[in-house]
């Protein structure tokens, strides 16, 4: 199972003074079971890119293939694509609207045309998978804390049983513990449910800690695509395009420059700690 | 008395059903005592729902207290005739820049605030000029705000507040929606206002790194202030902060972990420079 983007271009307001080329010649292959981070400054094309992956935006040119099928083919069901590639928008809790939490999670699968029993089973399972307390299932969603609301919103997408889950800055506006909880949850869904995860994030620390592969977007193009270590090794280039490496990377480079032979590839607190202790022992 | 002072400030959110019977009461502020001196850069930490934003709204007279008193620039906020003067003294910058921008042109947006409080036209343009300069957005003065990046929009919003020449600005998670560069620019603008114009700043944030340069930190939980001190004092209490759903800056955390593993690294490390120095001493 995979998503392939083949020379995808997207531009809007073509032929006017406001013409913008939002994506330029994007070639990507997303394999089954990957955990990918997409980084890039505001306006670099991240959101446009992920909206192509579940067919919300149609490429101006180029092709997108989901499990080998051309999604722009007339026979291809976009509805099915959207249930298999779930997209969690920024601040998804703003989209909660039902009178109870349970009904809200039912909304997605209900729209897939499933029978009532299956819908309810899926909602139940999704809420359980995001670790939501059972006693709150039939409460209105509006009194919950920010982090709890976001769990409900993620459950709503999870109830569609997607194979790929794309999350656009899922931790924005949450407190540190809320951030850790949501990221822990996403990582757990990746491991236990085998869902492919694509995470758009502004936090280099989070990306370094969780993902296996980073795609760096800059001015509508893919600037780097590789393992976190390889990408963050280019920290000077990242800075030039308004990004940065995790703070640990800077620390390690400076220690190294002062003659301490620490591991320059360390990007997380855990890795830095191990390397520093090793060198000093 | 400081520029912002609260004494036993309580705020209850009361929910009523259709027949006006009380359904539930949530105490968002629970006897808060605060005293902020003019010219300080204050940070307020606390998890989601701890009462930070409720406190901010009191400073701007957007909410009225259930119990207790709050004074802004010496004025009791609960007095009806003080509401407008209080809002002139204390400006506010919110989380989402898109909710705060109303005009089609950057400079008109910045002029909106002073115009509303009756500043003469001549002076409005002087203030717009100065404010845009202070947030380094002068070159975008004739642009449409919706073409700007999040960080730039947020700086326009700050200029709009600045143009009303408040003595104090409350920033309620101004960087939550921004990318790393936007975050840096907004923080820099807030610090510059504080240092060069002497504006008192109250910064509410979830990013521990943004707190490092503050003069004083308050930590809130369940509507109460549970810790206060300098950033160094607060971030020395790593385990305690974690128990309150908060965190410490990355460098403080790494220093803490190294110390736990037996390295003689001192408490209260905040920056990369300090950690490097401490590690090189061990060597």
Notable traits:
heterodimer, A: 281 residues, alpha/beta, Rossmann fold, 6-stranded mixed beta sheet, 4-stranded antiparallel beta sheet, 11 helices, B: 283 residues, 10 helices, 10 strands, globular
What does this structure look like?
The complex is a heterodimer of chains A (281) and B (283). With 281 residues, chain A is an alpha/beta fold. Chain A has one domain: Rossmann fold (3-Layer(aba) Sandwich), CATH 3.40.50.300. Chain A is built from 11 helices and 10 strands. Chain A is globular. Chain B is an alpha/beta fold and 283 residues long. Chain B has one domain (4-248): 3-Layer(aba) Sandwich (Rossmann fold). Chain B is built from 10 helices and 10 strands. Chain B has helices at 52-59, 83-89, 106-116, 121-134, 150-162, 180-197, 231-235, 238-243, 250-260, 272-282, and strands at 4-16, 22-36, 41-45, 67-72, 75-76, 90-93, 168-172, 200-204, 216-221, 224-229. Chain B has a 6-stranded mixed beta sheet with strand order 6-7-8-3-9-10, with helices on both faces. The longest helix of chain B has 18 residues, at 180-197. Chain B is globular and about 65 Å long. The model of chain B has no long low-confidence stretch (mean pLDDT 91). Classes of the chains: A alpha/beta (281), B alpha/beta (283). At the A-B interface, helix 6, helix 10 and helix 11 of A face helix 6, helix 9 and helix 10 of B.
Structural class of chain A: alpha/beta
The major sheet of chain B is characterized as: 6 strands, mixed
How many domains of chain B? The number is 1
- Give the DSSP E fraction of chain B (strand runs of 2 or more residues): 15-25%
- Supply the CATH class of chain A: Alpha Beta
In CATH terms, what is the architecture of chain B? 3-Layer(aba) Sandwich
Distance between the termini of chain B: 49 Å
Note the overall shape of chain A: globular
What is Rg of chain A?
A: 20 Å
Overall body shape of chain B: globular
DSSP strand count of chain A: 10
Helix content of chain A: 25-40%
């Amino acid at each position: 199972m995979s998503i392939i983007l083949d020379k995808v271009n997207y531009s809007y307001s073509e032929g006017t003074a406001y013409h913008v080329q939002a994506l330029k010649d994007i070639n990507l292959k997303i394999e089954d079971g990957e955990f990918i981070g997409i980084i890039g400054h505001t306006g670099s094309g991240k959101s446009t890119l992920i909206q192509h992956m579940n067919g919300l935006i149609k490429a101006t040119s180029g092709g997108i293939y989901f499990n080998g099928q051309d999604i722009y083919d007339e026979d291809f069901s976009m509805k099915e694509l959207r249930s298999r590639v779930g997209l969690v928008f920024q601040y998804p809790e703003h989209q909660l609207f039902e009178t109870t939490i349970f009904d809200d999670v039912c909304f997605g699968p209900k729209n897939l045309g499933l029978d009532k029993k299956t819908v309810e089973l899926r909602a139940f399972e999704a809420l359980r998978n995001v670790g939501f307390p059972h006693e709150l299932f039939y409460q209105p969603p509006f009194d919950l804390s920010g982090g709890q609301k976001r769990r409900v919103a993620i459950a709503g997408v999870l109830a569609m049983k997607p194979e790929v889950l794309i999350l656009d800055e899922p931790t924005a506006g949450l407190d540190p513990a809320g951030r850790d909880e949501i990221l822990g949850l996403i990582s757990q869904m990746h491991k236990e449910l085998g869902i492919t995860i694509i995470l758009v994030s502004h936090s280099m620390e989070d990306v370094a800690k969780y993902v296996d592969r980073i795609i760096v977007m800059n001015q509508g193009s893919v600037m780097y695509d590789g393992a976190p270590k390889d990408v963050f090794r280019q920290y000077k280039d990242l800075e030039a395009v308004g990004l940065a490496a995790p703070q640990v990377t800077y620390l390690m480079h400076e220690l190294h420059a002062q003659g301490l032979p620490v591991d320059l590839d360390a990007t997380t607190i855990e890795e830095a700690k191990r390397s520093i202790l090793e060198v000093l022992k | 008395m400081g520029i912002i002072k609260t004494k036993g400030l309580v705020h209850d959110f009361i929910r009523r059903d259709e027949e006006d019977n009380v359904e539930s009461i949530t105490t968002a502020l629970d006897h808060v005592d605060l005293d902020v001196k003019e010219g300080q850069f204050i940070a307020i930490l606390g998890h989601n729902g701890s009462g930070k934003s409720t406190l901010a709204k009191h400073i701007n007279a957007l909410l009225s207290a259930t119990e207790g008193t709050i004074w802004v620039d010496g004025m009791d906020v609960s007095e009806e005739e003080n509401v407008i003067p209080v809002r002139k003294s204390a400006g506010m910058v919110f989380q989402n820049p898109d909710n705060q921008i109303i005009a089609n042109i950057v400079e008109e947006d910045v002029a909106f605030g002073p115009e509303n409080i009756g500043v003469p036209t001549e002076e409005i343009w002087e203030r717009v000029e100065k404010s845009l300069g202070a947030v380094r957005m002068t070159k975008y003065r004739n642009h449409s705000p919706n073409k700007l990046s999040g960080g730039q929009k947020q700086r326009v919003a700050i200029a709009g507040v600045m143009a009303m020449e408040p003595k104090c600005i409350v920033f309620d998670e101004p960087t939550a929606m921004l990318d790393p560069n936007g975050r840096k620019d907004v923080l820099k603008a807030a610090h510059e206002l504080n240092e060069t114009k002497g504006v008192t700043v109250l910064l509410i944030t979830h990013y521990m790194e943004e707190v490092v340069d503050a003069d004083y930190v308050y930590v809130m939980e369940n509507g109460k202030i549970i810790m206060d001190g300098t950033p160094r004092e607060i971030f020395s209490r790593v385990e305690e902060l974690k128990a309150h759903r908060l965190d410490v800056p990355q460098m403080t955390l790494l220093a803490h972990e190294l110390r736990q593993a037996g390295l003689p690294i001192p408490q209260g490390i905040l920056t990369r420079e300090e950690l490097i120095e401490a590690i090189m001493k061990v060597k």
